[in-house]
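Feature request, filed as a ticket because there's no other form

It would be nice if the structure record came with a short human-readable summary line next to the tokens. Right now we just get the raw output. Example of a typical job, pasted below so the devs can see what we mean:
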Amino acid sequence: MKIQILSTFNTYPKTQKNTEPARQYYTALKLYSGNDVSFCSSNKMYSNNYYEAVNYLNSQKIKGTIKDINDLDLDKLNGIQEGLKTFENLNIKQIFFVLRDLIAININRGCERFCAHCILDSLPPQKNNDKYASTIAFEDFTTLLNDIKELNTRLGTNIISNRNAVPLILFFDSDSIKTTLKDNNNNEYNAAQLNHMQFSVTQKPGVIDTHGWDPGKEPELQKRAEDIVKYFSSAENQQELFRLNISLNPFDKLNQEAIRAEINKDFEKALYKRLEYAYRIANIFYTFTPIAESDKVTVIQCIANENDKNTIEEIKYYGKNAQYEIDKMVIRILEKLYEDDFSTERKYIKTETDIEKYLLIWGKKIFGRMRYASRLGRMSQFYKDKNELEERAESAREIMDIIQNKKTLAPDEESEIVDYKKPIRGSLLSGLIDVNGKFYVFKDPVSIPTEIQLNYKNKNKITRNPARGLEKFFLITNKIINSLKKY
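Raw output as currently delivered:
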């Protein structure tokens, strides 16, 4: 059936019926960990540093409302973190450095699409074993969230500051539909559920990001995507969502295969591969129909800038015209999916006017905006004079300059005149925690390492370094972090 739609548009694989009842445990997921520390708990012994920090904090609370951690003397506050497993062996300045502008807690690493423009040069996930990790341990994830929650309770404020206007995401170089964790009882949690857990603690909305899946070959991903859509069909649950991004571009490996076939004059294979990719995207739109009207559901389209200088000839296959051809295929296949739904199950399409309605909605999202892909990452292959590592190093030097020379990550305004109800950005730097607990400072499009290591179960395991070579030249030391005047 799939071959027929890819060659004729007359039919296509029917969406598999979901015979497994939808899970009903989306709300109020209970976090757990082995960490039972409570603020000023009488059943646990603390050091003098802890009680001195408590006394100092209480004295400041008596003086007035603490709007921001920069209202506090962090040296006097050190010790307030005692007993929090994740932050073992870190001082309070290092902890604030991690959490203040945190943008990502990596759940898993890796992607199999080999997109030609990937700014992160993503590779398939490593196998999880005694040496390597491509997935965070569920215990590490829940313990981290519990420790953040406990620290917030002790401080009386949310350390995940609202000055950082960006969301908190659970991926770095992976697809959200493939994002899952299993607890010790083998219960599986999808991206929406994991995001709910982090939102409950941080109050930061998350992001779902996907480039699609094959519903015939990957029925488990189809089911998972439908569960995620069902969850976000609730307006209340959508408050936990910053964006749901659908990636649609000519750089996907299926279109790369189509381009190679076209160059070799195998036009039948070229058409098949493009239609196969278009079907993959059309199926996303079909599956996401219940939330299509949400402004939070967006289509991200990246294309090559064919007018750039010093490019190779092959860049023309990834430009605006190539994107339009794929877009038109997607819309035509989506129309067939809707027509079949109306004539059979009426799962999403109840009336004939619904077809026109949703095609118009998706059409506006698809054709509304395109952007040029960054010249960095794999995209550098299309430029003759590209020094990709040097360009990323330039951004890394900017990060080091911000931290070393300005000696502050806080907004320029003094804390007492900052409107904390409005999200603002201070240093334009963000934090990223990898699946093994190593912490990186992120400034699009580069990550550079720090000496900070969270006390994760996976802490001794190897991951693909997010710095991608920059770790050889740059390192934010604890000495630098401890010298900061403001956070």
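Something like this underneath would help us a lot:
The two ends are 58 Å apart (CA to CA).
The longest strand covers residues 446-453.
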